[in-house]
Amino acid sequence: LGSRLTVLDIWASWCAPCRRENRDVLAPLWAQYQTAGLQIIGYSIDSSPAAWRAAIVKDGASWLHASHLSGDAAPLMDTLRIITIPANFILDNQGKVIAKNLHGVTLKDFVRAYLK
After folding, report:
1. DSSP per residue over 3-18, as a string?
2. Whole-prediction pTM
3. Looking at residue 72, what is its pLDDT?
């Protein structure tokens, strides 16, 4: 977990909205707030290790990443009851979910206000 805030982002290399979120929202947030206590953990539901790794590099997604590389059958999807991506959970420094499925400007504004 981040010292102040963690974004658990569920995505896939083949998901256009996920990739846009990586580049346009998460990468700028990471660049600006990683030293202020933000952690981002990307969890991919990819099945191809090559596609997953290539997307991380291409999107400039230099935060932590994990995947079971089992596609839609990823255990995390069932555990968290996720049926569509992109999805995310915003956690405080104790691991408590304080928001979920915030995207775009809404996510940027939430992180900015929380870390102020």
Report:
1. SSEEEEEEE-TT-HHH
2. 0.94
3. 86
